[in-house]
Amino acid sequence: MRIALVMPFRPQPSREYAHDLCVAHWRRVLPAVTVTHVDTGAEPFNPAACRNAGVFRAARSGAGVVVIADADTLVEEGPLRQAVEGAAGSGLVHLPYTEYRALGAEGSAQYRAGTPLRDCHAVTVPGACSGVYVTTPTTWWAHGGQDERFRGWGFEDAAWEIAHTTLLGAPPVRHEGRAHALHHAPAVKDGRQYEANAALCHRYHQAANDPVAMRALTASPVSWPAPGGAGRAAG
Question: What's the CA angle centered on 139, arms 134 and 140, to 5 degrees?
Answer without folding.
Answer: 70
